[in-house]
């Protein structure tokens, strides 16, 4: 029994380290390549990819910081409030940008010209700050009703009513259930549009590749979110039976919860690797970018003797005459 708890504890410690190590290059390359290359910025989905990458970066950083005892949420009252606030802010933001990408792909592949107008750079620029502003307003109560609770000084809710709302409504609905519903809905609608061969009529080659990348990432996100969705439903259904659980059942549930959190964490590390595997143009551009960057680092400034060059040039001209 204790071995199960020990495995869960080890998993809770090492999973943020693994996710951070794999996810940081993904977020970094997404931001550098999609921001730095002009032709990639022509797709509206690029704005949502950049927003998702920034959110992913903060999510992974928060998960890693929570493992560091010197920067733990229990260090001070302000640290407790800010860590809970940003953790509840960035995860819904990342899922919101993923949902916006799925919406954009449905709009750009639609039969209706009016719906296709929703897939534009102007619309994407206007929608880009909305997830950050919306979730910042929604999560303000975390700054008010969270603090260190004596005598153990654990970071938790100071208001029982808001604690129940946050645990059983805000966190599961906005971070898991609602994004999963939106992703499944727009994936089905986009598939129907593509199935009718509408995508070939008005989309460029890069937009077609972008659509394929977003669809694959959306499908992966659905499969990664489903285990956490099932566990959340199970926790809500068995809420009244919590006092009757044995130590073995609690240990198993703790281990399953850590596994589902790790699987869901794949959402925050996989975007660039999916784009790199399923987009020949992005793969070629990334290789050229890295090659140019490597050549730039290897370039060295060699001192030149101007007098020798002038003498050689004069000798060549004399020989030609």
From TrEMBL:
Protein's membrane topology? Multi-pass membrane protein
Specify where it is mainly localized: membrane
- List the subcellular locations: Cell membrane
* UniProt keyword list: Cell membrane, G-protein coupled receptor, Membrane, Receptor, Transducer, Transmembrane, Transmembrane helix
Pfam families, alphabetized: 7tm_1
Q: Which GO terms describe its biological process?
A: neuropeptide signaling pathway
All copies of the G-protein coupled receptors family 1 profile domain together span 26-275
Report TM segments.
Answer: 12-34, 46-65, 85-106, 127-145, 165-191, 212-234, 254-278
GO CC terms of this entry: plasma membrane
Question: Is Chloroplast among the key words of this record?
Answer: no
A GO molecular-function annotation: G protein-coupled peptide receptor activity
The protein's matches in InterPro entries, at most eight in alphabetical order, are given as: GPCR_Rhodpsn (IPR000276), GPCR_Rhodpsn_7TM (IPR017452)
Give the highest taxon in the source lineage: Eukaryota
Note the CDD domains from the entry.
Answer: 7tm_classA_rhodopsin-like
> Do you know which SUPFAM superfamilies this protein is assigned to?
Family A G protein-coupled receptor-like
UniProt protein name: G-protein coupled receptors family 1 profile domain-containing protein
Which organism's genome codes for this protein? Answer: Adineta steineri
Lineage of this protein's species? Answer: Eukaryota, Metazoa, Spiralia, Gnathifera, Rotifera
């Amino acid at each position: 029994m204790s071995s199960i708890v020990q495995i869960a504890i080890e998993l809770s410690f090492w999973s943020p380290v693994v996710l951070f190590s794999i996810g940081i290059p993904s977020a970094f390359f997404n931001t550098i390549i999609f921001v730095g290359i002009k032709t990639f910025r022509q797709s509206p989905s690029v704005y949502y990819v950049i927003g998702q990458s920034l959110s992913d970066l903060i999510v992974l950083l928060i998960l890693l910081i929570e493992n560091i005892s010197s920067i733990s949420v229990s260090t001070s009252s302000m640290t407790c409030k800010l860590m809970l606030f940003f953790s509840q802010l960035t995860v819904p933001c990342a899922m919101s940008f993923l949902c916006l990408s799925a919406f954009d792909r449905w709009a750009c592949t639609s039969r209706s010209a009016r719906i296709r107008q929703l897939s534009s750079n102007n619309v994407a620029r206007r929608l880009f700050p909305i997830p950050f502003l919306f979730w910042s307003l929604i999560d303000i109560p975390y700054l008010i009703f969270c603090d260190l609770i004596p005598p153990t000084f654990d970071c938790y809710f100071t208001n029982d009513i808001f604690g129940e709302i946050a645990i059983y409504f805000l966190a599961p609905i906005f971070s898991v259930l609602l994004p999963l519903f939106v992703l499944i809905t727009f994936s089905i609608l986009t598939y129907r549009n593509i199935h009718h061969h509408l995508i070939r009529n008005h989309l460029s080659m890069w937009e077609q590749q972008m659509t394929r990348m977003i669809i694959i990432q959306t499908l992966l996100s659905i499969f990664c979110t489903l285990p956490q969705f099932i566990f959340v439903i199970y926790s809500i259904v068995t809420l009244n039976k919590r006092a009757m659980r044995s130590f073995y059942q609690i240990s198993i549930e703790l281990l399953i919860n850590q596994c589902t959190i790790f699987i869901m964490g794949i959402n925050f590390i996989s975007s660039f690797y999916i784009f790199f595997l399923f987009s020949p143009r992005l793969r070629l551009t990334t290789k050229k970018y890295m090659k140019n960057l490597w050549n730039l680092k290897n370039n060295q400034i060699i001192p030149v003797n101007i007098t020798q060059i002038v003498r050689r040039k004069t000798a060549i001209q004399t020989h030609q005459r």
